[in-house]
Specification:
Strand content: under 5%
Largest sheet: none
Number of helices: 17
Helix content: 55-70%
Number of strands: 0
Order of helices and strands: HHHHHHHHHHHHHHHHH
Shape: globular
Amino acid sequence: MIVVFLSGAVGYATYTDWHYRTTASLNNNETDPATTQGHTDRGGLWMEFSLRRTWAQLMTAPKSNLQRDFAFVEIFRMLSVLIILAIHVSMCFTAGPTANMRPLEEFYGLKLSLIAVSVFPFQVHTFFTISGVMLAVHFLEYASSKANRIGWSFLWKGIVMRYIRIFPVLFVVWLYQVSWFDWFARGPGDYRYFGLEKDNCRTNGWLNFLFLNNYFKYSNMCMQQTWHLAADFQFFLAGLPLLMLINRHPRLLWPLLTITTIFSFGAPIVNLYRHKLPGVILTNFKQLRFVFYAHPALKNDYMLSHPHTCSYFSGLFAGLAYHRYRTAVVPVLASGNIAWLFKWVPPTMVVLQAIFSPLFYGLDYSEPMLWNAVYGAIHRCCWGAMCATGILYGATA
């Protein structure tokens, strides 16, 4: 019923929008301000469902400096999505039987393949970095427009508004998972995925609405892809108070940056050491099949929030730097040794660490290794710093 209602709203709004626009065009008064205002207001909330209006909003040129500076981020996001989709499709091929599995085994045995797949899973860090940048930029832009400091009531309003924005779509998808999802199960082994997913959503779906599904019962998670949504919401709960503290008490800027940096390095170290996980993502053919069936230890490293804090906090730092750059009298990012280091060291470190990843396949992970955990933490932080620096320079170029 919800889908039918939404489809009807889209159809009604689109037809109404087209009808009044056609009428105005026939009367040759589409440029008349009074007619345009009446056309805009007619229908009220219904008109927000119009496909024509939505398309016009998507294709409209940036209207502010902020929109122009970060327009390229959409391309950045789209490329990351395409890469992530390609990775998951390849995982599906390796998990299911094929006519000849030897070419896949040989492909994932190549050193170049091992190097590439060691960094491909970090694509999800890109989204956390973008989220941190956008939160910092928009918050500081809003704060700078206010004469007084922002009160703490803004925190609760921000949390409620973000939850309201996410909940409706998440709820509709959950309804589909617990009702029609297993209708697609046709093969003899489909119950391992479709039936199991439906049972998990009926049993543990309530955790998704609390955005805790990546920490509790994650071995039987409903809609595993929503772990990213839960982690991003948790980062928001940490990032917004952090920005408010910096806004209300500017002297806390460097102490807070120091604490978050230490935590960004320390959290992955503890996680990798405690669970005896490799410092880099090891993904050969057998391990891809292993990952597909969601081993709890690998889920712990991939789906929890704290191993990814380096990327989100890197995004927050980039947002702070962007605001300082746009409001400073003298630009501080154009030149200098520090600017050069931030621009070239992170991507160089990512490439070098990926090159050495094949060496980690021969290690014994039955016992925890501190150097391995430190290496993995640096690897993750370098990826986050690389994405944050790239976004920062892209926005200020």
